Amino acid sequence: MNFRFKLSRRLAGMKLAVVIAGTLALGCGIGSSGPVISRIEGIQITPGRIALQPFQAANLTIVVVTSRGVDSTGAAAALQLSATGGSIVSNGVLGGVYYITYTSPPQPGNYVLTVTTVNGSPTATASIGVTSNPVPVNQVAVTPATATLAVNDTTRLKASLTDSTGASLFGRPISWSSSDGNIALVVEGGFVRAFAPGTVTITATSEGHIGSATVTVKPGP
To answer: Which of 21, 63, 135, 184 is deepest in the core (most CB within 10 A)?
Structure first.
């Protein structure tokens, strides 16, 4: 075996090793698509601005946005959460959404809730204002704004309250009403039950401010 032949065999072996290494680095094997790693591009906290009283709790959601869209693999459970005041309790991950409860500290002031990854990037923050006196409700929004139900179906509407600056408010009394209880009835918590075909307006009222949604009921099958 001459030197040229030995060199050819060695080069061929090196090329094969490079191909194999490249295949493994891409996370796939021959004849298999293999795992695909998504890059985390952003974190979303909802709501991003909150007005609370001391020791008041607020429910927030966190969504991780990756290069392949909203994360649904449970990676949100590995996020790192911190706050400059108050406490945070995790309520688990469902459908790619991370649910938490934040409880404000006893001292009035401005605080920041921070959510980040183990690498420290990306990072998202929510601003929290704590005041001894309740901030008045300025607007009530009901979501979804429209809904279609069949007779005997149920759904739930959500009322969101904000102050004059747009900060979200929690723990305020909300009263619900229906423009025609024979078509659809609404009870505490925004739960709607459809009884007969037609269209109704569902209204949520808090501190004299109202928000509404339109519910259309169609005949059942």
So the answer is: 184
Cα separation of 221 and 210, whole Å?
34
List all residues 6 or more positions away from 72 whose beta carbon is below 8 Å from its beta carbon.
95, 96
The percent of the chain in helix, strand and coil, each rounded to the nearest 5, is 10, 50, 40
Cβ atoms 60, 88 nearer than 8 A: no
Place of tokens 């030995």: 6
pLDDT in tens, the chain (221 residues): 543 434 344 434 433 333 323 332 323 333 444 445 567 788 999 999 999 999 999 999 999 888 777 776 666 667 899 999 999 999 988 888 899 999 999 999 999 999 998 888 899 999 999 999 999 999 999 999 999 999 999 999 999 999 999 999 999 999 999 999 999 999 999 999 999 999 999 999 999 999 999 999 999 77
What's the CA dihedral at 145, 59, 170, 213 to 10 degrees? 10
* Residue 39: count of CB within 10 angstroms of its CB: 7
Q: What residues contact residue 35 under an 8 Å CB cut-off, 6+ apart?
A: 27, 28
Q: How crowded is the C-beta side of 127, counted as CA atoms within 13 Å?
A: 7
Asked if 6 and 14 count as a contact pair (C-beta separation under 8 A), the reply is no
Q: Check the CA dihedral 127-133-138-142 and report its sign.
A: positive
